[in-house]
Amino acid sequence: MACLSSGETSGTTATFVIVDRWTVTVASVGDSRCILDAQGGAVSSLTVDHRLEENVEERKRVTASGGEVGRLSIVGGVEVGPLRCWPGGLCLSRSIGDMDVGEFIVPVPYVKQVKLSNAGGRLIVASDGIWDALSSEMAAKSCRGLPAELAAKQVVKEALRTRGLKDDTTCIVVDIIPPDNSIQPPTPPKKHSMLRALLFRKKCHDSSSKLSKKLSAIGTVEELFEEGSAMLAERLGNDYSTSQSTSGLFTCVVCQIDLAPSEGISVHAGSIFSTSSKPWQGPFLCADCRNKKDAMEGKRPSGVKVA
Ligand SMILES: [Zn+2]
Question: Which parts of the sequence belong to the PPM-type phosphatase domain (predicted)?
Answer without folding.
Answer: 1-176
